[in-house]
Amino acid sequence: MLDVFLQTLPFFLIVGLGYGAGRTGFFTESATAWLTKFVFYFALSAMLFRFSANLSFAEVLDWTFVAAYLWGTAFVYLIATLVAFLRRLSIEETAIEAQCAAIGNTGFLGVPMLTLLLGQAAIGPVMLVLAVDLIVFGSLVVILVTGSRDGRMNLGILRTVGLGLVKNPMIVSIVLGFAWSGLRLPIPDPMNQFLSILGGAATPGALFAIGASLASKSAERPMVAGWLSFCKLVLHPALVALAALVLFPVEPFAAAVMISAAALPVAGNVYILAQHYRVAPHRVSASILISTAGAVVTVSLVIGWVSGLH
């Protein structure tokens, strides 16, 4: 377990470095926003395209895997929803809290960290997790919040969801990569080198950006944020493990990757949604801060445990 902790520690040290740079003002909020944009639209997209272009979509797509991850994630989503309803929160606040409880930082933290820690074979399962998070649950929160405000479902909501998916560079780069792979086109050496160099900036850039963005977060309403962090760091991987190992038995290595991805802290894009819709941004901010700090220990524990599954 100590070996696993020491392997994950460098990733969180880069997050800590970013946090220090942001906290001291050396890295301003404006600089963090631009770095995040570079990673999101260029570096991470290059990494995802290169990964998916070298994979076969037919080999990656595993409906049992999808069913297991969907069941585990939907279960924790439901738990957070029920607790929010018992606290008599609005549908909008409930949707945002459920998103905190179930959606991890797979894009910025999971893709670079898990592929380095668990090996190149982890790429396919991690991208499946990312796709489910973005397509299913990313769409669900928009439908719930927008539908609640409008009082009904309409084509405008579906149009908003569709445009959001089409404009998401992570989805676009994965789809284009699989399309390239499906056409059986080799990646020319200059293009491969270009993607490799640009994609190489994704890991340090994303981790530093996570830390710098945390510097502007506050730990208001720590009790609620602590509950949501517990859901994300403990309940989510536990329920996904139950689904992947018992209810919908998944191949051991893929199950290990899925459970590790479920153990990741609250995703930063939940805060972007909360800010955009003006729904509990401080609560989400605190959840991201607390869950990321806790993940230094919990992610190591989970990865250490799942390493015995394969």
Question: Can you describe what's shown?
Answer:
This protein is an all-alpha fold and 310 residues long. The protein has 15 helices and no strands. It has helices at 2-23, 29-53, 57-60, 63-86, 91-102, 106-118, 123-150, 155-166, 169-182, 189-200, 202-214, 222-247, 252-262, 268-277, 281-306. The longest helix is centred in the middle third of the chain and has 28 residues, at 123-150. The radius of gyration is 19 Å and the shape is globular. The chain starts with a helix and ends with a helix. The mean pLDDT is 84.
Helix content: over 70%
* Helix-strand pattern: HHHHHHHHHHHHHHH
Instruction: Tell me the quaternary state.
Output: single chain
Distance between the termini: 16 Å
Structural class: mainly alpha
Strand content: under 5%
pLDDT below 50 for ≥5 consecutive residues: which ranges?
none
Largest sheet: none
Rg, please?
A: 19 Å
Round the mean pLDDT to the nearest integer and report it: 84
> Quick one: overall form?
globular
Query: How many helices?
Result: 15
DSSP E strands, number: 0
Can I get a quick summary?
The chain has 310 residues and is mainly α.
Layout of helices and strands:
Layout: H1 2-23, H2 29-53, H3 57-60, H4 63-86, H5 91-102, H6 106-118, H7 123-150, H8 155-166, H9 169-182, H10 189-200, H11 202-214, H12 222-247, H13 252-262, H14 268-277, H15 281-306
Helix pairs in contact: 1-11, 1-15, 2-9, 2-10, 2-11, 4-5, 4-7, 4-12, 5-7, 5-12, 6-7, 6-11, 6-13, 7-8, 12-13, 12-15, 13-15, 14-15
